[in-house]
Design goal:
Blueprint (H helix, E strand, L loop, with lengths): L3 E3 L2 E5 L3 E6 L9 E4 L5 E6 L9 E6 L7 E3 L5 H24 L1
Parallel strand pairs: 1-7
Antiparallel strand pairs: 2-3, 3-4, 5-6, 6-7
Length: 101
Amino acid sequence: MPTDYIRNGILYVTENYLCFESSKSGSSKRNKVIKLMDITDIQKYKVLSVLPGSGMGIAVSTPSTQKPLVFGAMVHRDEAFETIFSQYMKITSAAAAGADS
């Protein structure tokens, strides 16, 4: 799967957004703000499958991305994934409940 690989920064999860701030100076074009409601797919991603524990990231797809965004080289990938996924489920469940009323 072709991807847009993003690394060297901080990934934040808020109530409604997933935000990435690049740590490289002058790299504001690599900063990303994604509405959790816009996410169509989120999965754990391993860029280098031949090396154990290496290249661990999270792949996120939205309607506006032509290929998944991969936030890579994550130290605590599993914990980050669980946090993002649980907030995503919370906000999409709330939206679905609101649509049913």
